[in-house]
From TrEMBL:
The UniProt record lists the keyword Mitochondrion: no
UniProt cross-references to SUPFAM superfamilies, sorted A to Z: S-adenosyl-L-methionine-dependent methyltransferases
Keyword entries, A-Z: Magnesium, Metal-binding, Methyltransferase, RNA-binding, RNA-mediated gene silencing, S-adenosyl-L-methionine, Transferase
EC number: 2.1.1.386
Annotated TM spans: none
Residue ranges of every copy of the Hen1 N-terminal domain listed in the record: 1-242
Domain Methyltransferase type, residue spans: 292-384
Cofactor: Mg(2+)
Highest taxon of the lineage: Bacteria
Organism: Nonomuraea mangrovi
Protein name: Small RNA 2'-O-methyltransferase
Region of interest (Disordered), ranges: 448-467
Family: Belongs to the methyltransferase superfamily. HEN1 family.
Catalysis performed (reactions): small RNA 3'-end nucleotide + S-adenosyl-L-methionine = small RNA 3'-end 2'-O-methylnucleotide + S-adenosyl-L-homocysteine + H(+)
Length: 467
């Protein structure tokens, strides 16, 4: 089983720094199913190629194969799979190139952060879906994809093609991104894994898919195949992909440079800060003493609420355990005074599934959350928040798409994970329909500097339950 990675960047031998494998050495790594060897067939200034070769022990492979793997019933007797780049190769990539996948290179950090001209070849790859599926998965990621079906027997062309392809990828990408693409998509193309699919596979998928999976046009197929069509794991993964927090919008705000030769210019307050302050102010005006932040992300709003003693009970919920861990660190949960800690609860949950822990609060906040939810799943979120949790007040903020033209360098939506961005009329129509359906009234507030013709960058809806 063979994978080669080549570059023509000058000097091409810098590939060794990125992979953390010296071009002059042959290195072996023991795997549960055999041995992985890294060597360099060519290592020159103009072109360098690193090869990952797996020598699979068929007996060890049988012992580690899960019952959900392809061809399980025949795998102990007739097995050509050790010679094809399936999940075995993905596991080897994850182990052998772990540091490179993380985008770390202490010796040359600028090299790890930049893109390189890359060429990746896999001579034999199981592909349930044929060459077309390989192109559908890799081309949206920036790869020029050559996928050629391998015939069952070249001497008998009338027998047709096998389910294996020869794959060649060319593109200019970060090496870390390229390795993560392979780590996720090799078992997806194969539609099976050689090991038991446990719940921690969701975390692996989300980590390796960071920055590209959420907006991939085939994300549903990728997620389902990667997780072996295990419905519970799928639901968790889909929710985590759909309901991530938005902390990147402030990057759109123009930076104000300090003129060292003149008076200091007052710095603009970032939009995410103004939005958070407006939410806290509105909650105070509503007289809420208990608040749940639905989709709390890294806990910025939760921290602002904790700073106000009037909020006696605060909860932060997010579908991402990673985000909750970051929130706990930023809030210094371990060192928080007992009195303040007693006011706070952080827990994991998906906003599109009924959860009794969401109920019992004066107010719920959905701050920059709904635009991350696929439109067909909005009805589920509405039912969970307004129907089952049914707090006295609900505050919803979301981008105003009409304002986007004011961001000079913005193309498309404000965040790559946004599923939609509404105009003021579209947001009003949605909010008024939800209010009627669940017996609320709704008022609207602008957040941020208003444009006379386009409104404010953020729009806020404040829902109050009718008695």
């Amino acid at each position: 089983m063979l994978l080669t990675i080549s570059t023509t960047a000058t000097p091409a031998t810098d590939l060794g720094f990125l992979l953390h494998k010296h071009p002059d050495r042959v290195q072996g790594f023991a795997q549960s199913f055999g041995t992985a060897t890294v060597f360099y067939p060519e290592a020159g200034e103009e072109r360098c190629t690193a090869a990952l070769l797996l020598d699979v022990d068929p007996v060890a492979l049988v012992r580690t194969r899960g019952r959900t793997s392809p061809d399980f019933s025949l795998s102990q007797y007739v097995n050509d799979r050790p010679y094809a780049a399936s999940s075995l190769m993905a596991v080897a990539i994850g182990d052998v190139f772990r540091t490179a996948r993380g985008g770390r290179c202490n010796a040359r950090p600028e090299l790890a952060a930049g893109t390189l001209p890359l060429e990746i070849t896999l001579p034999a790859l199981p592909c349930r879906g044929g060459p077309d599926l390989a192109r559908r998965l890799f081309e949206p990621l920036g790869w020029e994809t050559e996928a050629q079906a391998v015939p069952l027997d070249e001497a008998f062309p009338e027998w047709g093609d096998s389910r294996y392809v020869r794959l060649r990828l060319r593109g200019r990408l970060r090496l870390a991104d390229a390795l993560n693409h392979l780590y996720v998509l090799l078992p997806v193309l194969d539609d099976g894994k050689h090991y038991w699919i446990a719940p921690d596979e969701v975390d692996k998928l989300i980590r390796a898919g960071e920055g590209w999976l959420a907006q991939h046009p085939e994300r549903t197929l990728i997620t389902r195949r990667y997780l072996g069509r295990r419905r519970a794991l799928e639901r968790t993964a889909f929710a985590r992909l759909a309901e991530v927090g938005d902390e990147t919008e402030e990057a759109l705000e123009p930076r104000i440079e300090e003129d060292k030769g003149g008076p200091l210019e007052e710095k603009a307050v970032p939009l995410n800060t103004r939005r958070r302050e407006e939410v806290v102010k509105t909650l105070e005006e509503l007289g809420a003493s208990s608040v749940i932040d639905l989709g709390c992300g890294s806990g910025q709003l939760v921290g602002a609420l904790l700073a106000e003693p009037r909020f006696a009970r605060i909860a932060g919920v997010d579908v991402s355990t990673l985000a909750l861990g970051i929130a706990a660190r930023k809030l210094k949960l371990e060192r928080m005074p007992d009195v303040k800690r007693a006011r706070l609860t952080l827990f994991q949950g998906a906003l599109t599934y009924t959860d009794p822990r969401f109920a019992g609060y004066d107010a719920a906040v959905l701050m920059e959350v709904i635009e991350h939810v696929d439109p067909p799943r909005l009805a589920a979120l509405e039912r969970v928040v307004f129907g089952h949790a049914a707090p006295q007040h609900v505050i919803v903020t979301t981008p105003n798409s009409e304002y986007n033209v004011n961001y000079a360098f913005l193309t498309g939506m404000r965040h790559p994970d946004h599923r939609f961005e509404w105009t003021r009329a579209e947001f009003a129509a949605w909010a008024e329909r939800v209010a009627r359906e669940y017996r609320y009234t709704v008022t609207f507030k602008p957040v941020g500097d208003e444009d006379p013709g386009r409104g404010s960058p953020t729009q806020m809806g404040v829902f109050t339950r009718e008695h």
